[in-house]
Write a structure and sequence with these properties.
By secondary structure, this protein is α/β, with parallel strands linked by helices. Helix content is 33%, strand content 23%. Strands 1, 2, 3, 4, 5, 6, 7 and 8 form an 8-stranded parallel β-sheet that branches. Strands 9-13-10-11-12 form a 5-stranded antiparallel β-sheet. The radius of gyration is 19 Å and the shape is globular.
């Protein structure tokens, strides 16, 4: 049987960084595969995994197979692509374990349903579902009462509170209330540093799945999210400080990408106003020429042409 681990969590909670840390702990006698889903049309997280280094700078083994399904939720927009990618991993890679990272806007409960279909019954065993949370989101109504966020909480076997060093006393109190309400084990970490033992816990058998789903279907709401990809060119390097200021003014929910600059490729990663940059590990790894692009996610309809024009004003002449 192939062990399957699902790592879910909302936008920007640090899922890929956590996955990188896990991969760095891979036993030498096991073969692993990773199936990624990204909401945008290009696969930045997949490129980072293929480069052998994470956005947090962690090195990864070269013998982990990585597959990606981009362009929407695995179980809603691209279920056939998901099953095709999964079947390919099972048939050709024959791994010991498969790690599935859905998009931050994905429905992990539906992915679990797909994994439980009859054709996988004698092939896959579903291990504990880890739901990453950023305690700072718990007091933000845009996140806490959003249907997708609530789905991710309901499906968890283990909670991982990431970026814990950034949380306030009030947010930590809200986290304790959450853990008590859902009666699930939890761990508090920084930079995705989850011990491998947490991934090896057996999944709980929830005999009341139906009523759990009714809970968040009835109370869940929240605005829709929209995504847009801005393709950039190496011959038009950007002033990175100006880009950061521009993105903060636009008040986007999520930004990530690889930007051209006079100092080389720059990895940008941000949630709300919290935006960070560093040299791109993809260019430093030397495995491929970076595809320069900026993925943005926003929770209100905006003029994407206006956003593109704002970014172009940051070209470093």
């Amino acid at each position: 049987m192939i062990h399957v681990h699902v790592l879910t969590g909302f936008l920007g909670v640090g899922k890929t960084t956590t996955l990188h840390h896990l991969i760095s702990q891979k036993p030498k006698d096991e073969k692993w595969a990773v199936l990624l889903n990204e909401f945008g049309k290009t696969g930045l997280d997949s490129d980072l995994l293929h480069s052998g280094q994470s956005s947090g700078g962690q090195s990864n083994p070269d013998d982990v197979y990585v597959s990606q399904v981009a362009g929407g939720c695995l179980c809603c927009a691209t279920p056939l692509l998901f099953q095709t990618a999964l079947n390919k991993i099972i048939r050709f890679e024959k791994p010991t374990r498969i790690f599935i990272e859905p998009s931050g806007l994905g429905h992990p409960d539906k992915i679990i349903e797909l994994l439980k279909e009859p054709q996988y019954k004698k092939i896959l065993t579903i291990e504990a579902v880890l739901t990453l949370i950023d305690a700072r989101h718990l007091l933000d109504i845009r996140f806490r009462e959003h249907e997708i966020y609530m789905r991710q909480l309901a499906v968890a076997d283990v909670f991982v509170a990431n970026k814990i060093e950034l949380a306030s006393i009030e947010e930590l109190t809200a986290l304790d209330v959450l853990l008590k309400k859902y009666q699930r084990p939890g761990i508090k970490v920084s930079n995705g540093q989850v011990p491998i033992e947490y991934w090896q816990k057996s999944a709980k058998k929830n005999s009341d799945q139906k009523s759990t789903r009714m809970l968040f279907n009835k109370t869940g709401g929240g605005d829709a999210f929209f995504t847009h990809t801005i393709m950039l060119h190496v011959n038009a390097p950007l002033n990175i400080n100006n880009v950061i200021g521009c993105l903060r003014d636009l008040k986007l929910v999520r930004v990530k990408g690889i930007l051209p600059s006079k100092d080389g490729a720059i990895l940008i990663n941000g949630v709300n106003q919290d935006i960070s940059v560093k040299p791109s590990p993809i260019e430093n790894h030397g495995s491929k020429i970076p595809v320069y692009r900026l993925e943005i996610i926003f929770d209100a309809k905006v003029d994407v042409t206006y956003i593109e024009e704002k970014i172009l004003t940051c070209v470093d002449d």
